[in-house]
Design goal:
Oligomer: single chain
Number of strands: 32
């Protein structure tokens, strides 16, 4: 069905053009009109210059502008990216986030000349499973786990707790919930989806919205302890061909709306104030430029009257657009451009396009009106508007991971556990001697997944335990519960022991990832750490429980066969004790699959003819010990090896590590997980760079006398193919080293300067004895970028090229 409703959109076209002003005058004291409702908004719009209107439609990230820029350009909103934080510190304490919010707010409301209204800005963040950018906040299970609970009341309570923690830090706006209906689990954002079932997604998405914003029409709506939120991504993000992030969604438009558009009417009824446009295309047309869907369907048929915000430079993907020049998005229905870094040239082009008539002033006023309408509802306009630190629970830092919020998270974790197999070993017997194995058992970062302090998340090597001061790992919870039951628990990551255990629990799973870096060509789980441990214990006749951490169902036939019990634990977040509550029987196993579990190792979408091993809605109680038949372990995809892809799509390949050090051998060589970081002793800085997608590449700043390189665990052989871009001119020698062989590439770097991305192919002909390790060495400071590193076979005698 299509969704018909009335759109409450007011279009105003009262403005006058002006040039960008110099520093604001301190003499005038313009005020926001005391009128209310649409009259107040119309009055504000009528007194705004063109430049200030365009400023309301621009959303940069905090890493790329300053409070001084805010005062000059008056951005309507701003965001912190997944790796962004106040004052350049993504791990800054909560108090610094609040201080920064005040600074930006104060800059946005400084008096303007000529009676022009000074409009408060607003800060948006991705708090997708709790206030997950903040050290010490509660990390709730990701949406896929909440889908397994099927509990709308629980999700609503989580929404309210999250909103409270967001308000503590002075932030106004959450880019959540994701209401994608994921239909191909190869998609790296599957864990952001509640379910493959659109009705369940609609129910839980609406519950989270009400939890964060309050009930529309009530006195509590957008009041203290509430923030306004975003339903995303409109639309079809969960339906791309082969699960490719930002890919194509094809089919009959009505059928696509019935499936992927299903959650939006309920989100709108729940009062959602923002909708984010999706990166993907619908039948070949990018959503950021699709007027028929963004305007005619979302606003006209579904009746949405809030604001439409773009995703990270998504407008730049429209045919005929660039990141800095894209009137098409505004004309299609976008109200706010999310333009993290290139905000100034985009502002300039939009101003020029209004002046030359490319963009009608009426469309600008319509977009500004929508932004102001949301600000008005959120209490940012009028005489009662307050600085972030003066609102509600702001500054009450004891509310971050409060005992009540931690108890709620633990409840959610327990309710999300899905028991797939149990040969009678669960619940654990009181008084048992329990061995806990696996590198993930005591790793809060891994159990929390992506969007945890860092965009792509991290494990304990990059996100140490001190970043999770109030959290419990799965090991912590098992030890607590087993000991309380009169038993003993021992942690042994490698599975070794002195006293023979009664039972072994093996905790293992996917390493953290976020969008596009998490895309897979199939659903085979190739990391064999857990499998080896399970088989090792089986050979010793020790009963085993497999606890699998993942952002999606995966082909696990080998592990299912090897384990006596198997629990799909998803990505539980900061309260790993909730897992232990089910293992020890303190809570019943009530979780049920919100995604069907694949029968085939090739990893097809849910409508695959192979069907499902475990269907949507499957899950055992602890008392269900019915046997699971032996599963086939044949899988041709296991033979496929992508270890020759050392780096790509922003991630190191399987079995590849990155490292830095000093050429003179002083200090120690240090590993750089995920090829990111700046805290090494060599002073090398590796940071994310957007080439074709967000942080799909790395910018590498090397001081003189340092090196950077990558190494494979197993030498796949072949030439190195490296996509690179030189940013600064070499002022000293640049060399490539592999083993004892060294190649001077200074001249090649000089020729490549400022010529965009190029490819170098390094073969035996110029670097004899190529091995599993290759490194760049620099005699002087140099900055360059890398988007991919591969090994591939080439014909004997192939020359090197740059």
């Amino acid at each position: 069905m299509r969704y018909i409703a009335l759109a409450l959109v007011t279009s105003l076209s009262l403005s006058a053009c002006a040039t960008v002003p110099e520093a604001a005058s301190e003499t005038a004291q313009p005020t926001i009109s005391a009128r209310t409702g649409e009259a107040q908004i119309a009055d504000i719009v009528s007194r705004m210059s063109l430049e200030r209107k365009i400023g309301q439609l621009i959303q940069p990230q905090i890493n790329s502008f300053t409070p001084e820029d805010m005062e000059r350009y008056r951005f309507g909103s701003y965001l912190n990216g997944g790796n962004g934080g106040p004052y350049g510190d993504e791990f800054a304490p909560a108090s610094e986030w609040l201080r920064y919010a005040d600074e930006m707010y104060d800059a946005s409301v400084k008096p303007l000349p000529k009676g022009e209204p000074a409009i408060p800005t607003m800060w948006g963040t991705d708090a997708v499973h709790g206030h997950s950018n903040i050290v010490g906040a509660t990390l709730f299970p990701h949406n896929i786990a909440l889908g397994a609970t099927g509990d709308a009341d629980l999700v609503q309570r989580i929404g309210h707790a999250t909103a409270i923690e967001i308000e503590v830090t002075g932030i106004d706006w959450n880019f959540s919930p994701t209401v994608a209906v994921a239909r191909d689990d190869r998609w790296g954002r599957t864990y952001e989806s509640y379910s493959e079932d659109p009705d369940l997604v609609a129910k839980l998405g609406a519950a989270l919205i009400v939890g964060q914003q309050g009930v529309p029409g009530s006195d509590d709506f957008l009041g203290d302890g509430r923030v306004f939120v975003t339903a995303k991504h409109f639309f079809g993000d969960g339906g791309t061909e082969q699960g490719v992030d930002q890919g194509d969604v094809n089919g009959d438009i009505n059928a696509l709306l019935d499936l992927h558009g299903r959650p939006y009417p309920e989100a709108i009824d729940a009062g959602v104030q923002a909708v984010m446009a999706s990166f993907n295309s619908i039948n070949g047309r990018k959503m950021h430029g699709n007027k028929e869907l963004l305007t005619d369907v979302l606003r006209g048929e579904m009746g949405f009257d809030g604001l439409v915000v773009g995703d990270w430079n998504g407008h730049g993907q429209i045919k005929g657009c660039t990141v800095t020049d894209c009137p098409q998005s505004l004309m299609a229905g976008l109200d706010i451009y999310m333009v993290p870094d290139d905000w100034k040239p985009l502002m300039e082009s939009l101003i020029a396009q209004v002046k030359d008539g490319t963009i009608p002033m009426a469309r600008v006023d319509e977009a500004v009106t929508r932004v102001l309408r949301v600000k008005q509802r959120a209490g940012l306009l009028g005489e009662n508007a307050k600085r972030p630190s003066e609102r509600g629970v702001a500054g009450q830092y004891d509310l971050l991971a409060s005992p009540e919020h931690r108890a709620l998270a633990r409840e959610a974790v327990a309710k999300s556990q899905v028991l797939l197999k149990n040969d009678g070993v669960l619940p654990l017997k009181a008084g048992a001697n329990v061995l806990v194995a696996g590198s993930a058992a005591d790793d809060v970062g891994q159990q929390s997944g992506g969007w945890t302090l860092e965009w792509q998340g991290g494990r304990k090597d990059t996100l140490p335990r001190e970043y999770f001061p109030k959290a419990t790992s799965i090991w912590d919870g098992i030890k607590e519960n087993v000991t309380a039951d009169g038993g003993s628990a021992t942690l042994s990551e490698d599975g070794s022991f002195e006293a023979r255990p009664d039972i072994a629990i093996v905790v293992f799973g996917e390493h953290p990832y976020a969008e596009f870096a998490g895309d897979q060509r199939d659903l085979v789980f190739r990391d064999e750490e857990g499998l080896k441990l399970l088989r090792q214990f089986s050979e010793q006749d020790i009963p085993t429980v497999a606890v699998f951490l993942s952002g999606r169902p995966m082909w696990m036939n080998r592990e299912l066969n090897a384990a006596d019990a198997f629990v799909a634990s998803w990505l539980p977040g900061s309260e790993g004790a909730g897992v232990a509550d089910v293992l020890t029987g303190q809570r019943e196993a009530t979780g049920r699959l919100s995604f069907s579990w694949p029968a085939s190792c090739e990893g097809q979408p849910v409508n695959s003819p192979e069907g499902a091993l475990f269907a949507f809605g499957f899950g055992r109680s602890l008392s269900d010990t019915s046997p699971l038949a032996e599963l086939s372990e044949e899988c041709a995809a296991l033979e496929a090896n992508d270890s020759a892809n050392l780096f790509g799509s922003g991630r190191l390949g399987s079995g590849t590590s990155a490292f830095v050090g000093r050429v003179d051998g002083t200090g120690i060589e240090e590993l750089m997980p995920n090829m990111r970081g700046d805290t090494n002793g060599a002073g090398v800085v590796l940071s994310g760079y957007d080439r074709d997608a967000q942080e799909d590449s790395r910018e590498i700043a090397m001081p003189g006398g340092t090196y950077f390189g990558v190494e494979q665990s197993n030498d796949t052989g072949g030439a190195y193919r490296i996509a690179y871009e030189v940013v600064t001119r070499p002022t000293g020698a640049i060399r490539l080293r592999s083993g004892d062989a060294v190649l001077d590439v200074t001249a090649q770097f000089e020729l490549a300067l400022a010529k965009g991305f190029r490819e170098m192919v390094v073969t035996e002909s110029c670097l004899a004895g190529l091995g599993k390790r290759i490194a760049f060495e620099s005699e002087a400071d140099i900055t360059f970028r890398i988007s991919s590193i591969k090994r591939e076979e080439v014909a004997e005698g192939t020359e090197c090229s740059f």
